[in-house]
Design a protein that fits this description.
The chain has one domain: Trna Endonuclease, Chain: A, domain 1. The chain is α+β, with helices and mostly antiparallel strands. Strand 2 and strand 3 form a beta hairpin. Helix content is 30%, strand content 29%. Helix 2 packs across helix 3.
Length: 192
């Protein structure tokens, strides 16, 4: 586009696809640090277990040259809140209509199920990036959908019906514990 006096405006935008899906994770990490700093909860990002096979010791610092994943990781986060164990996965999608189940691995789904069956609080946090909406979906509702549907994705309507919209603000950014407090953090097994 040319403006008067020959000034050119570059309207092409460089789009980087590096670290896609990391915005939600970063927001949760900041939220968790707020929880820790204020003695509210102690929830941490779980490291993915790796096996180091080649290391370079030639410089002042040790550099890992080659490594591989030892085993599949379970979920992204775990910790303790008000005496209850919390375990959850965080995912983002660009879709405006559904969340692809291919974004969650089978072993993660089994882990989420095992946590709530054993009295813990398990859930997924799903951000619909283009809609600027983030939902908390309890593990039992995730499993119920998977067990009772042949779909390869969870429709947005299911999140609106069974999930909880997380209010996003400056501090804490993704206050998911407000939802846990609202619903009592109890799964069906706890209510018996």
């Amino acid at each position: 586009m040319k403006y008067p006096n020959g000034i050119k405006l570059n309207t092409t935008k460089n789009i980087s696809y590096d670290n896609r899906g990391m915005d939600l994770e970063q927001d949760i990490n900041i939220t968790n640090q707020y929880y820790i700093d204020n003695n509210i909860a102690f929830i941490y990002k779980k490291p993915t277990p790796i096996q180091v096979t080649k290391v370079d010791y030639s410089k002042k610092s040790v550099i890992i040259k080659e490594a591989y994943f030892k085993e599949p990781s379970t979920t992204d986060y775990n910790g303790l809140y008000k005496g209850k164990y919390i375990d959850f996965e965080a995912k983002e999608t660009d879709s405006k209509t559904s969340f692809p189940l291919s974004n969650i691995h089978k072993h993660q789904i089994n882990h989420i199920k095992n946590i709530y069956l054993n009295g813990g609080i398990s859930f997924v946090i799903v951000r619909f990036s283009k809609l600027f909406q983030t939902f908390l979906l309890l593990g039992e509702d995730l499993i119920n959908f998977i067990d009772n549907n042949d779909r390869k994705s969870i429709p947005l309507e299911y999140f609106n019906k069974k999930g909880y919209l997380i209010e996003e603000k400056y501090i804490p950014r993704v206050n998911y514990l407000k939802i846990i407090d609202k619903i009592g953090g109890l799964n069906e097994k706890d209510k018996e």
